[in-house]
Design a protein that fits this description.
The chain is an alpha/beta fold and about 300 residues long. It is built from ten helices and eight strands. Strands 1, 2, 3, 4, 5, 6, 7 and 8 form an eight-stranded mixed sheet that branches. Helix 9 links the parallel strand 7 and strand 8. It is globular.
C-alpha cells in the first residue's frame, strides 16, 4: 500500500526538482466558482496554469485542480455557468436544510479551534466521524457527477485531506489507487457538513482542517510556485478554524525561505461570510474573470 500520510514539513522539500507548482486552496462553493472564472479567463488570454509540473488542491481547490489536471476547464466552466443559473443543482455540493445537533457540534469543533495540534485535530475528527451527515457514498457520487472523470487525470495532481482518527495529513495521488471523486470529496469534507471519506483504510476529512488551506510544503523546493488562496493572513479579524493570520503569513514566508520563488493571488473582492451559499456563485465567477483581466500581465511575467 502506497504511503499517503506525509507530515507537514518545509524541510522535507517535497517540491525539489519541480519547475512550476500551482497550489489551489479551499473556500467552499464560492471559491470553486471564483477559481473557475479566474482560471478559465486566463486560459482565454493564453495563460494555461494547468500545465504546472505539480498541482496541489485542497477542499474547493481539489475540485478545480482535478479539472485542470484533466484539461477539462473549458467544459467545467460551462457547467458552472449552467449551475449558477440553477442554484438548486449547485447546492448538491453542500448539505441542505438545518444541521443535526451532531453536525453542529462537529462544525463548531472545527470553527472554534485555535490551533492545529494533533489532539485538536483528533477531537475535530472524532466529532466529524460522529456527525449525522449524508453518507460518504452519496457525497462521492455527487462529486463524481460534478467532476465527470472516472480515472485519475495525472500523476501531477496531489489532493490533501486529514485522517479523522489520527489527525495525520494525507496526500492522495494517482499511485494511491483511490477514485478521484473520493479523494476530492475527502478533501472537501468539512466536519459536520460532509461525512469523512474512506481513503484506503482510513476515514478522511477536509484538508483545511490541518492548519492550512494550501499545504505549501508540497511545493517547497520547487523553482517557482503560484498560490491561489482565499486569504493571505492580512485579515486582522480572521478567527475561524485551525488557521490564524500569523500561521497563514508564516507558511508563505517559509515557502519562500525554502528557495522557491512564490507568488500568491487572493480575491480582491469581499469574500462572503457564507462561502457555501450557491446563490453567490454567479457573482463569484464574474469577479474571478474581472481579476484575471487585471492580473494576467503579472502572472505571465511570473509563470512563463
Amino acid at each position: 500500500m502506497v504511503q499517503i500520510a506525509l507530515p507537514r514539513s518545509m524541510d522535507a522539500r517535497y517540491g525539489r526538482g519541480i519547475e512550476r507548482g500551482l497550489v489551489l486552496g479551499g473556500g467552499g462553493i464560492w471559491f470553486v466558482a471564483w477559481q473557475t472564472g479566474y482560471l478559465r479567463r486566463l486560459e482565454e488570454l493564453g495563460l494555461q496554469l494547468g500545465l504546472a509540473d505539480r498541482l496541489v488542491g485542497t477542499s474547493a481547490g481539489s475540485i478545480v485542480a482535478s479539472i485542470l489536471a484533466g484539461e477539462k476547464l473549458a467544459g467545467f466552466g460551462r457547467t458552472v455557468d449552467l449551475l449558477t443559473r440553477a442554484p438548486g443543482l449547485l447546492a448538491r455540493m453542500a448539505a441542505s436544510g438545518p444541521l443535526e445537533p451532531s453536525c453542529e457540534r462537529a462544525l463548531d469543533s472545527f470553527r472554534d479551534a485555535r490551533d492545529c495540534e494533533p489532539q485538536t485535530l483528533r477531537e475535530i475528527g472524532f466529532a466529524a466521524l460522529a456527525a449525522r451527515t449524508p453518507t460518504a457514498e452519496v457525497t462521492a457520487r455527487n462529486f463524481s457527477v460534478i467532476l465527470r472523470m472516472r480515472r485519475w487525470p495525472s500523476s501531477r495532481l496531489h489532493i490533501t485531506c486529514v485522517d479523522a482518527f489520527t489527525g495525520e495529513r494525507i496526500v492522495v495521488t494517482r499511485s494511491a489507487a483511490v477514485p478521484l471523486a473520493r479523494a476530492a470529496a475527502a478533501s472537501s469534507a468539512v466536519p459536520g457538513i460532509f461525512a469523512p471519506q474512506p481513503i484506503q483504510d482510513r476515514k478522511c476529512m477536509d484538508g483545511g482542517v490541518a492548519g492550512t488551506g494550501v499545504h505549501l510544503d508540497l511545493v517547497a523546493g520547487a523553482r517557482r510556485a503560484l498560490v491561489i488562496s482565499l486569504v493571505d493572513g492580512s485579515e486582522p479579524d480572521l478567527a475561524w478554524g485551525t488557521m490564524t493570520p500569523e500561521t497563514i503569513r508564516q507558511e508563505f514566508a517559509d515557502l519562500q525561505a525554502s528557495g522557491t520563488e512564490a507568488l500568491r493571488i487572493v480575491p480582491r473582492t469581499q469574500v462572503p461570510e457564507d462561502v457555501m451559499d450557491p446563490r453567490l456563485a454567479v457573482s463569484a465567477v464574474q469577479e474571478g474573470v474581472a481579476q484575471a483581466d487585471d492580473d494576467v500581465a503579472l502572472l505571465r511575467n511570473f509563470w512563463v
